[in-house]
Amino acid sequence: MIKSISSKSMNIKKTVALTVYLMLCNYLIAQVNIFSSNQEYQWKTETLEWSNTKKQIEADIIVNEENTYQTIDGWGGCFNERGWKALQYLTGEKQKEIMTKLFSDNGCAFSYCRMPIGASDYALDYYSLNDTHGDYKMNHFSIDRDRKYLFPYIKAAIEINPELKVWGSPWTPPAWMKENNSYNKGLIKMDPQTLEAYALYFQKYVEAYRNEGVNIVAVHPQNEPLHLPAFPSCGWSGQNLKTFIKDYLGPRFKKHVPNCEIWLGTINGNKETDEFSEYIQPIFGDPEVAKYITGAGFQWDGDSAVERTNKEFPNKKIMQTETKCGWGTNDWKYAFETYNQMVWYLERNASYYLQWNMVLNETGMSSWGWKQNTMITVDTFNKTYQIHPQYWAVRHFTQFVKPQAKRVSCKTKDGIQSLAFKNPNGNIVLILSNQSNKEQNVTIQVKKKNVNLKLLSGTIYSALIK
């Protein structure tokens, strides 16, 4: 009799425990985590529950995870010398705070970043990785200069995210390889000896950084080949780039660094040139050169060729290599401009999106006097730092949409802008904004379940649906 009562008691306890467990599971499943940012607050979190209504409601936003588009391969920014110098004015603790905000899973979670090969316009001065005139064998190639600024900057990021991938692009070849013998402006010499040496230069760069523990995964042969300003730069016609990749860079990489990608980039635009006809069509249209190239990288002003590239060469990936630089305002207007540019590229199947400067000092100045925007500013006088709206706008994408996520179908009513993604673990991420001057109430439908959300004016949202 005692055993019978004891057995019944145990069964009751198991039943109660199971009921509580199922209720808890249902409670956790029946929630949507919402994150939002605007001028009033930088980062707000809340939890919403799915609607219990039995009525058929026409949702404003319908996510269909079965209909997929491109894979998201990575998010990031660019390492520049002036950024690391600015960070040196802060304590080690504050430096780590900033790097954590940029590279940890609880921050922007950057996983795919750019670096210059030699000097960019945000270098402290101009240099290349081999300034020994006529050294075609690259005997004097060296990354020693980078050990002071770029290398520790990248290493600090790797400490936060050991899986960080890095790609490089030169703003200019060594000056002695150019017709004008200058870092600024000019064209590369197109003789075979120079081009063979320049391909070796790229190989040496990849190998040198990999030997130091930095995972260089790709190169783009030239930053903005249509732009010849008074800072490190070099002009390349489409035909010259084609020759260099087809006859020199491609074969050398295939033989010596076959696991390092070559991209056609970083393509910019100007009023006189059709970027698609100049670069994309003749290079991707030639299978003997296209076989070496993973995809096309576009700067913010090279976007006129994106849609045709995606349509005519769907097997080539799209990368946005540098978001719009801005004019040092670091305000919410620019944050929404960056947000909209990210949406535009992602809707056109970009697999990567990169910011420009992640950190600068309070001047924001380039080497030639252009004050540009940055995600974080270091006040070198007061030894403090400020996080700008661009950071929060970008984080809605980069923290939650993980590498190898798929963009999925997201139907919306007029006046509502949204994108949806499915992470490798099955979580759905919905990113949306209200850029009007009025509040909007929307119903979101995922997996035939609805949730209601009030969109405040001038606010960016991300919804994490597990």
Characterization of this structure:
- With 466 residues, the protein is an alpha/beta fold.
- The chain starts with a helix and ends with a strand.
- The protein has helices at 2-29, 81-87, 92-103, 150-160, 192-211, 238-256, 275-284, 287-290, 306-312, 332-347, 389-398; strands at 31-37, 44-49, 61-72, 74-78, 112-116, 165-169, 216-219, 261-267, 293-299, 317-322, 350-357, 359-361, 376-379, 384-387, 405-412, 417-422, 428-434, 440-446, 449-455, 459-465.
- Strand 18 (440-446) and strand 19 form a beta hairpin.
Summarize the structure.
The protein has helices spanning 2-29, 81-87, 92-103, 150-160, 192-211, 238-256, 275-284, 287-290, 306-312, 332-347, 389-398, and strands at residues 31-37, 44-49, 61-72, 74-78, 112-116, 165-169, 216-219, 261-267, 293-299, 317-322, 350-357, 359-361, 376-379, 384-387, 405-412, 417-422, 428-434, 440-446, 449-455, 459-465. The protein has 466 residues and is of the alpha/beta class.
**How does the helix and strand content classify structurally?**
alpha/beta
How many domains is the backbone divided into?
Answer: 2
- Widest β-sheet, arrangement of strands: 2-1-20-17-16-15-3-18-19
Low-confidence parts, pLDDT < 50 over ≥5 residues? 1-5, 18-28
Largest sheet: 9 strands, mixed
CATH superfamily grouping of the largest domain: Glycosidases
DSSP helix fraction: 25-40%
CATH secondary-structure class of the largest domain: Alpha Beta
Average residue pLDDT: 93
Shape: globular
Multimeric status of the protein: single chain
Through-space gap between termini? 48 Å
The tally of beta strands, per DSSP, is: 20
Q: Write the CATH fold name of the largest domain.
A: TIM Barrel
Question: Approximately what portion of the residues adopt beta-strand conformation?
Answer: 25-35%
Instruction: Report the C-alpha radius of gyration, rounded.
Output: 25 Å
